Amino acid sequence: MTLEVLVVGAFRILGSLPVLRWPLAGGILAILVDLSDLVLINVLDLGGIPDYQRFDKIMDLVYMGAFLVVALRWTGPDRSVAVALFAYRMIGFAAFELTGERALLLVFPNVFEPWFLLVAALHHRWDPVPWTRVRLAGALLVLFAVKEVQEWALHLAKLFDNITALDAIDQVWHWLTGG
What we know:
single chain, mainly alpha
């Protein structure tokens, strides 16, 4: 285990804890911390992270576990769908760990994460939504579609495997500024 694994791991764990007090803001922070670890890895030179995909999936369990703790406080479909989506992702996580096959993450997309954020946003702003079958099916269909595109880009097409986070930021900056 390298010092870089310890530093990035501590960063990811600390970034996951605010969700326990502030579900929406903490959830957004946890996801931003998850994404920002790639920048941190590009900046640090403390021995590297030998198997980043595996490390990332294990660190995802920290914020997802915190999300689950919060979701277990909910009631009705908010809670039951969250628990089902968490279990679904854990099956995918276990399959990935056993095989190392990234394509399995397309079969088991992390829909738990956007579901959590959707419900946390609804609870933050309004009273709990009275879920009808149509609303629930529509919300889940949209969330699954969005996550499938993301999982495809990350794990099947591997669009970001040969580019550093700093290179991506630089390309976006140049595109935005016309430079």
